[in-house]
Amino acid sequence: MKPILRGLTTLAAVALGAFSTSTVVPAQASSVFDQLEVDQSRFVAFSSRGLSDRGLIIVEQVSDARACWNETGSNPTLVDPLLLDFNFTGICRRSTDRNGYSIRVNGEDMGLAYTLRVIPRDNEMVLTGIPRNNSVPRVEIGRTTGVTNDFAKLTLDPGWRFTRRTYNDQVLGHIYLTFEGSFPPGAVDPNPGGPTDPGGPTDPGGPTTPRFRDIAGDIYFEDIQQAVEIGFIAGFEDNTFRPRETLTREQLVSMVLDSLEEVPNANFRVPSQANGAPYRDVNASRWSAAKIQFARDNNIVSGYQDGTFRPDRPVSRAELISVLRRAASYAQTLRGSSADLLPTEPVFNFTDTSNHWANAQIAEMSSFCGVASPVNERGQQFSPDSSALRNYAAAATLRMLSCVQLPE
User: How far is residue 306's CA from residue 320's CA, in Å, rounded to a whole number?
Assistant: First the structure.
């Protein structure tokens, strides 16, 4: 098992299952990951756009071919992410979620102990480490010295700096917000004496060595790298991943069940053969038949009212999230835990899901390690009825899998 460190109409909703419906996390071992000092001037941290709690974006200027961002004004300083307007491969590097950055304190990776959000407070916006243990105080890391609905630069508080994650002297793309010294008052002990993680790097191969020739500029580049390394999704024989191809219903089932094989302390085995045709349009000899039958029997997916499954039908983003929600609940029961999904971060307020059949599930999964996130990680739209693409499916499944492995 490879460890993970830091995935229509009402009839279609029914077809995929309707889907209505206190301890400190130990740090990762410093013996596994190390940190590399970087030129602080090559990095900028800024808040995403919005009206309430924001996400964090970190951009690195890799080469000087073109500027990756521009800064204007003060109190707050606004950031114009210029990299949105050109192919920034090899020029800029962008980190937008927990797979791209985490907190590191006194040589310990705290990525499983804290999520990072930008929270408006007292006429400024504060970059805050939010502990997964609600009884532990939050940690303030940086601030904007002003309020705006636009991208706003975050100046790190004294003692904090950017570093880069390394593994066995291999430089990775993951960015640390690093603090050393007496840890901020009231925050969790960065080394509570819990077990350490003996696993390997989060993004084997690093951002400069893409596994596939068509993913280097993709926003989910590192998620794809890690998902392929884990093994629940793969590329094609022509050395492509085809990140913007749509995902079909049978591909979704296969991907999700393969990901659940990585859940630790779970007795999980999918039969290699179906004991019959699970649906009238899915023969027992079809490559996905056994997985579809297993997913049906365990209430992860359902067929249509006419007795078909329609394995080749494209999956929408809403359906992807709904299936991931059921899979996460099922995975937690495999570990002997409650099927209820506890939030790890604030709910994201999407602007286009309020009247959608999957609104509740999308909202819930946005607070469950950010499994549900905006289209291309920008703006506030989820676009629930648009097709689920392979790049986002890999990232969302990876987040789901990481979240169900968090200690209770």
Answer: 22
Distances (CA, A) of 81 to 150, 199, 351: 11, 34, 22
Cβ contact 402:324 at 8 Å: no
Q: What is the reported pLDDT for 390?
A: 95
Cα-to-chain-centroid distance, residue 398 = 6
Instruction: Assign 3-class secondary structure to the chain.
Output: CCCCCCCCCHHHHHHCCCCCCCCCCCCECCCCEEEEECCHHHEEEEECCCCCCECEEEEEECCCCCCCCEEECCCCCEEECHHHHCCCCCCEEEECCCCCEEEEECCEECCCCEEEEEEEECCEEEEEEEECCCCCCCEEEEECCCCCCCCEECEECCCEEEEEEEECCEEEEEEEEEECCCCCCCCCCCCCCCCCCCCCCCCCCCCCCCCCCCCCCCCCHHHHHHHHHHCCCCCCCCCCCCCCCECEHHHHHHHHHHHHCCCCCCCCCCCCCCCCCCECCECCCCCCHHHHHHHHHCCCCCCCCCCCCCCCCECEHHHHHHHHHHHHHHHHHHCCCCCCCCCCCCCCCCCCCCCCCCHHHHHHHHCCCCCCCCHHHCCCCCCCCCECEHHHHHHHHHHHHHHHCCCC
Quote the pLDDT of residue 49: 76
CA distance 176 to 101: 6
For residue 11, what are its two tokens? Answer: 């009839």
What's the pTM?
0.55
Query: Tokens for 305?
Result: 């009212």
Partners of 130 in beta bridges: 115
At 339, which amino acid appears?
A: A
- The per-residue pLDDT for 200 is 36
Taking the chain (408 residues) in consecutive chunks of 10 residues, what is each chunk's mean pLDDT?
Answer: 31 35 33 82 89 79 93 93 83 81 88 80 87 74 90 93 85 89 54 37 42 84 84 89 94 94 81 92 94 95 92 95 96 88 86 95 92 90 95 94 71
3 close to 200: Cβ distance less than 8 angstroms: yes
